[in-house]
C-alpha cells in the first residue's frame, strides 16, 4: 500500500470541527509543525486528517496564512510583513480568540506570534476596567483583593503613566 | 420587566453576547496567555494585564520574551537612570516613542555601574555591589568586597541568573583589569 505522501505536489485533506473538508498542498501544510510531525511519523496515511478543535471559518483563515507564507520566497519578507499586519487588521476578538487557539494547536509559530502581538496591542494603554470589557472577563477580585494587588504593585502605579 | 429586558437585548445582540461569553479569555492555555503577557511591558503588564483578573495575574512571564517576528525585541529600550536622590529609571523606546518612568526606592543611594539583559549592576558605599532587576525587583547581592574598592568601572558578561555570569572591575589608574 503506497504512502499517501509521495511527492511535494501531493495534497492533504483537513477536516474542520464542523465537518468541512479542505484540500491543502503539502508544502502549505508543512507550515504547521503539528502536521509536519504527523507527516514525518507517517501518521498521515489516513485520507482525511481531522482537526476537531478548529472550525471551518478559522481553518480557512489559518490555511490562507499558511499558503501565503509557504508560497512567498524568503526575499519577500517585507511583503509578508505587510500581509501579516493586514491579515489581522479588522479581525474581531472572537475570530482572534479562535485563531490564537488554532495557531497554538497546529503549532504555527509565526501565526501565534502575530496573533499574540495583536491581542497584547489591544491591552496596551487601556485602563484595566476597559480591558475587562473588551475581553468579557469578569472581575473576580474582591475590592480588598484588588486594593492589595494595587498595593503590591504600588511602585508601578505610582511610577508609570 | 421581561418585556423591557427583551427590548434592551434584541436577539441578535444577545446571541453575539452569548457567543462572546463562550470565548473565555481566562480559560486559554497558560502558554498562550504567557505568550501574550510577554509582549506587554512595564505599565501595560503590571497595571493592566495583571489587574484584570486572578487568572491573568498568575500567568507566568516567559523567561526569554523574544518573539522572532516582532519588529523590535522588547529589550531594546533606552534606559536613563537619575540616581542618588531621585531613584528614577526612565525607559524610552525610540521606535514607539514610548516612555515609562519607574521609581525605585530600593535603589536609594546606589550608583548604576552597568546594565544588561534587564539587570542593573549597582554599587552602594565602599563594599557593596549587587544586581537588581527593576521588573521583578529581584536583588542578588555579591559578596562584600573585603577591601575598600575603587573601581573606575564595573561590568558583567551576561545575566546574573546564568552560570556563565562573570563580574569584573577595572582600575584604570593601574592600567590593568581584575
Automatic annotation (TrEMBL), chain A:
Q: Does the keyword Lipid biosynthesis apply?
A: no
Kindly give the CDD domains that the UniProt entry links to this protein.
BTB_POZ_SKP1 (cd18322)
Copy the pathway line from the protein's UniProt record: Protein modification; protein ubiquitination
Q: Name one GO biological process term.
A: jasmonic acid mediated signaling pathway
Question: Which chain positions lie within coiled-coil regions?
Answer: none
Cite the Gene3D superfamilies for this sequence.
Potassium Channel Kv1.1, Chain A (3.30.710.10)
UniProt key word Transmembrane helix = no
Q: Where is the SKP1 component POZ domain?
A: 11-70
Keyword terms of this UniProt record: Ubl conjugation pathway
Q: Where is the SKP1 component dimerisation domain?
A: 109-156
Instruction: Read off the Pfam families from this record.
Output: Skp1, Skp1_POZ
Summary of the function given for this chain in its UniProt record: Involved in ubiquitination and subsequent proteasomal degradation of target proteins. Together with CUL1, RBX1 and a F-box protein, it forms a SCF E3 ubiquitin ligase complex. The functional specificity of this complex depends on the type of F-box protein. In the SCF complex, it serves as an adapter that links the F-box protein to CUL1.
Into which family does the record put it? Answer: Belongs to the SKP1 family.
The subunit field of the Swiss-Prot or TrEMBL record says: Part of a SCF (SKP1-cullin-F-box) protein ligase complex.
Q: What is this protein called?
A: SKP1-like protein
TrEMBL record, chain B:
Q: Where is the KIB1-4 beta-propeller domain?
A: 91-171
Origin: domain of life: Eukaryota
F-box domain: from which residue to which, for each copy? 25-57
Protein name as annotated: F-box domain-containing protein
One Pfam family matching this protein: Beta-prop_KIB1-4
- Which lineage? Eukaryota, Viridiplantae, Streptophyta, Embryophyta, Tracheophyta
What InterPro entries does the database record attribute to this sequence?
Answer: F-box-like_dom_sf, F-box_dom, KIB1-4_b-propeller
Amino acid at each position: 500500500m503506497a504512502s499517501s505522501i509521495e511527492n511535494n505536489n501531493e495534497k492533504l485533506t483537513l477536516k474542520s470541527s464542523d465537518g468541512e473538508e479542505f484540500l491543502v498542498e503539502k508544502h502549505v501544510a508543512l507550515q504547521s509543525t503539528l502536521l509536519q510531525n504527523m507527516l514525518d511519523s507517517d501518521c498521515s496515511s489516513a485520507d482525511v486528517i481531522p482537526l476537531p478543535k478548529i472550525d471551518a471559518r478559522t481553518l480557512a483563515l489559518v490555511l490562507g496564512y499558511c499558503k501565503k507564507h509557504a508560497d512567498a520566497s524568503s526575499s519577500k519578507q517585507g511583503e509578508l510583513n505587510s500581509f501579516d499586519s493586514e491579515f489581522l487588521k479588522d479581525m474581531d476578538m472572537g475570530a482572534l480568540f479562535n485563531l490564537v487557539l488554532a495557531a497554538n494547536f497546529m503549532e504555527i509559530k509565526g501565526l501565534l506570534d502575530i496573533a499574540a502581538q495583536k491581542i497584547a496591542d489591544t491591552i496596551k494603554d487601556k485602563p484595566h476596567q476597559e480591558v475587562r470589557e473588551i475581553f468579557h472577563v469578569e472581575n473576580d477580585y474582591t475590592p480588598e483583593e484588588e486594593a492589595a494587588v494595587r498595593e503590591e504593585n504600588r511602585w508601578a502605579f505610582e511610577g508609570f503613566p | 420587566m421581561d418585556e423591557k429586558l427583551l427590548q434592551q437585548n434584541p436577539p441578535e445582540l444577545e446571541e453575539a453576547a452569548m457567543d462572546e461569553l463562550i470565548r473565555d479569555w481566562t480559560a486559554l492555555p497558560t502558554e498562550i496567555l504567557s505568550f501574550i503577557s510577554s509582549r506587554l511591558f512595564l505599565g501595560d503588564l503590571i497595571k493592566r494585564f495583571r489587574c484584570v483578573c486572578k487568572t491573568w495575574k498568575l500567568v507566568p512571564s516567559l523567561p526569554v520574551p523574544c518573539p522572532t517576528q516582532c519588529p523590535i525585541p522588547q529589550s531594546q529600550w533606552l534606559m536613563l537612570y537619575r540616581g542618588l536622590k531621585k531613584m528614577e529609571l526612565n525607559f524610552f523606546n525610540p521606535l514607539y516613542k514610548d516612555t515609562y518612568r519607574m521609581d525605585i526606592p530600593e535603589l536609594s543611594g546606589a550608583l548604576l555601574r552597568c546594565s544588561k539583559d534587564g539587570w542593573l549592576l549597582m554599587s552602594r558605599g565602599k563594599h557593596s555591589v549587587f544586581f537588581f532587576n527593576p521588573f521583578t525587583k529581584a536583588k542578588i547581592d555579591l559578596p562584600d568586597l573585603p577591601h575598600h574598592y575603587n573601581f573606575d568601572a564595573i561590568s558583567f558578561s551576561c545575566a546574573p541568573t546564568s552560570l556563565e555570569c562573570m563580574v569584573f572591575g577595572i582600575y584604570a589608574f593601574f592600567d590593568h583589569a581584575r
